[in-house]
From TrEMBL:
InterPro entries: Lycopene_cyclase_dom. GO terms for cellular component: membrane. It holds the Pfam family Lycopene_cyc. One of its GO terms (molecular function) is lycopene beta cyclase activity. Residues 130-222 form the Lycopene cyclase domain. This is Lycopene cyclase domain-containing protein. Keywords: Carotenoid biosynthesis, Isomerase, Membrane, Transmembrane, Transmembrane helix. It comes from Zunongwangia atlantica 22II14-10F7.
Length: 236
């Protein structure tokens, strides 16, 4: 099972590549957000071995807490999470008019972008929660904060969370028929709820929902973009 995590990360990267190559109109957004997300793979020592301990290339996770697979995984989900809703509902982007940017709620724009980081640090320092729960809570609050600043993204944020959860459920489940003991062997279930959904830890699905919820609206929030129907702007 030494290379399962590596193969798994390549599977999600392959999906990223298929979308990137087949949907020219989303390439810029995918690449930007993937590059922003990729460094979060360097937070893996917060989760190893507290949350899980997967065998990794060159035994890096066991030796250092870091691994190459987390960087690949983070890169891939960043781009996919950004455009998944747009792909399903055929949406494109336009710039937000400056008249809308001057709205009262946007005065907190910069501060709201840092909500997930602030929440994560607070829960990490002042509670004994496993870091996976700190991350889930942080992204959930980040999504709610984005909703305050960008109520026009309400549909994308909630539905984006659901869509990414469905995708992640399929992705995670793809490995279990081949390695049915993988979760029991490498997840630290004694530190978690022990709730499994068809063999998948509930924490993974909560991560998927909150990540999809927050990340689906982050590009628009960060770069002052609005959604528009694809018939009004080409996304191919």
């Amino acid at each position: 099972m030494q290379y399962v995590w590596f193969i798994w990360s390549l599977i999600i990267l392959a999906l990223w590549a298929i979308i990137y190559l087949s949907k020219k109109g989303y390439r810029k957004e995918m690449l930007k957000m993937s590059l922003i997300t990729m460094p979060f793979g360097l937070t893996e020592p917060l989760f190893v071995p507290e949350y899980w301990m997967p065998p990794s290339l060159f035994h890096l996770a066991e030796r250092t807490g870091f691994d190459i697979e987390s960087l690949i995984f983070s890169f891939a989900i960043g781009g996919i999470g950004t455009v998944l809703y747009n792909l399903i509902f055929k949406k494109g982007y336009i710039d937000m008019p400056h008249t809308e940017r001057s709205h009262q709620r946007h005065k907190l724009h910069i501060y709201i972008l840092f909500v997930p980081a602030i929440v994560f640090v607070i829960f990490s320092l002042f509670t004994t929660l496993n870091h996976i729960y700190c991350g889930i809570i942080a992204m959930f609050f980040g999504g709610l904060a984005t909703l305050y600043c960008r109520p026009d993204l309400k549909g994308k944020i909630w539905v984006g969370g659901i869509l990414f959860t469905i995708l992640y459920f399929i992705y995670f489940g793809s490995i279990l028929p081949f390695y049915p003991q993988y979760v029991e062997l490498y997840w630290n279930l004694d530190n978690l709820t022990h709730i499994l959904v068809l063999g998948i830890p509930i924490e993974e699905l909560l991560f998927a929902f909150t990540f999809g919820m927050y990340w689906s609206g982050l590009y628009e929030h960060l770069y002052w973009r609005k959604l528009i129907k694809s018939k009004e702007i080409s996304t191919n």
